[in-house]
Amino acid sequence: MDQVTLQRFAAILNCDTMVSPFIYLVMPVGGSHKCGAFWNGVIEKVQSRLSRWKGRILSMAGRICLIRFVLSSIPLFFMSLFSLPFGVARKLIRIQRVFLWGWGADGRKIAWASWNLVCKPRELGGLGIIDPKLFNLALMGKWIWRLGSVEVGLWKEVLISKYGGWRGLGEEGKGRSCSLWWKDLKEVWSSKGWGSCFEDSFEWKVGDGKDILF
Q1: Helix locations, 149-179, DSSP H
Q2: Residue 22: beta bridge partners?
Q3: pLDDT (tens digit, 9 = 90+) per residue, 89-101?
Q4: 113 and 141: one domain?
Q5: Bridge partners of residue 24, in order along the sequence
Q6: CB count, 10 Å around CB of 162?
């Protein structure tokens, strides 16, 4: 639509014009979360918390606590709604890894353990630091659980009417015209047998028969 027509409609409706993407409740609306630029704000916030003096003054235990309880919570809001691209996850891991082994120190520090070992629970010999990609997978999977639970809401009614609810996640050939967010849920469903584990955890009761198809 040309700008003249757009301004005319805006004057008739007595409203302002906006451009996409825009920010609403701290979240960007519009644009693609598959692009790295979509996550620049998250990366900048993580880096801003890691000033050079913190790396020099804090002990190893202090750096671990900062990573676990501060850095892992900054991208929480974004990762609970959007699938984390591989490149963004790699940047977050690199920031945490550099900070853990000596942020702000002169020269390159030695990594005394692999990152996979660092992210393991303490009971298994790790440091309990959250892996962003696995954390994102769990947060996205929570939406699938909410779809299959007894929770009610308008968002759930819309997804059931449009895609069939959680049953539609495992259907093939019906994801071409769906939204990016639903495609992300379908990827979570098919990744590493997540969907089969989800279905195996259900216990069905016939009740009034509305949810049971014979």
Answers
A1: 154-163
A2: 29
A3: 999 888 888 888 8
A4: no
A5: 27
A6: 12
The residue with greater pLDDT, 83 or 175, is 83
Q: Which two tokens stand for residue 100?
A: 């853990």
Please say whether the beta carbons of 67 and 96 come within 8 A.
Answer: yes
Q: Which amino acid is at 124?
A: L
Q: Enter the pTM of the model.
A: 0.77
Count how many domains the chain has: 2
CB 99 within 8 A of CB 63: yes
Answer left, alpha or beta for residue 48, where phi above 0 means left and psi between -120 and 50 means alpha.
Answer: alpha
Could you tell me which of 142, 184, 134, 159 has the C-alpha nearest to residue 34? 184
Closest C-alpha to 128, from 67, 54, 71: 67
| Most trustworthy range by pLDDT among 105-119, 155-169, 200-214 | 155-169
Domain that holds residue 159: 136-200
Give, as one character, the DSSP assignment of residue 127: -
One domain, residues 108 and 43: yes
**How far is residue 32's CA from residue 30's CA, in Å, rounded to a whole number?**
7
Which two tokens mark 1? 């639509």
- Give pLDDT tens digits for 33-47: 888 888 888 888 888
Q: What would the pLDDT profile of 135-190 be if each residue is shown by its tens digit? A: 898 899 888 888 888 778 898 889 888 888 887 887 775 556 788 888 888 888 88
What is the CA 112 to chain-centroid distance, rounded?
29
- Three-state secondary structure call for residue 123: helix
129 and 64 Cβ atoms separated by less than 8 Å: yes
